[in-house]
Amino acid sequence: MTVESHVADVSSADLARGVMATLEDPRGWSRAGVRFRLDDGAPYRIVLAEPGEVDQLCAPYITSGRYSCQIGPVVALNADRWRQRPSHWGGSLDAYRSMLVNHEVGHLIGQHHARPTCSGPGEPAAVMAQQTKALGGCAPNGWPLEWEVRCAAARTEPLAPPYDPGATATCGPAT
To answer: Which residue from 53, 57, 88, 111 has the highest number of Cβ atoms inside 10 Å of its Cβ?
Structure first.
């Protein structure tokens, strides 16, 4: 994959180090047997960009200048969110960045938004829950839960899915 920063205050090298630290962390998607490596010729891109560019990269998804996305081979990270976590997200900025990378790359490896978002009030949110929007009583969490790892390891969904507003999870905590 390639990692690109399109913002003045974060270098591509620093972004790549941070992204790869998350993707290579033993708490992450590697538990599902997924391996990531930097490769300038790779078809998959992670791009950190200002909100307007993210909106363009993510279209036809509506990111409203606030959200990040994955569409086809592109993961577009909103630079405003990279710089500052949402106020409702009680964890650290570094933990939020890990969640952001794991969530959007989770889509890239075929994972959908989590239902339920956590096992009960105060329990860690699934990394595939839309934690940027709200926590819904769950605790902030930057890493895939055991059931999310199991779902990713099953490889039931394609890599780099295209735009599909109706996509739903085929795997969950009980499967």
So the answer is: 111
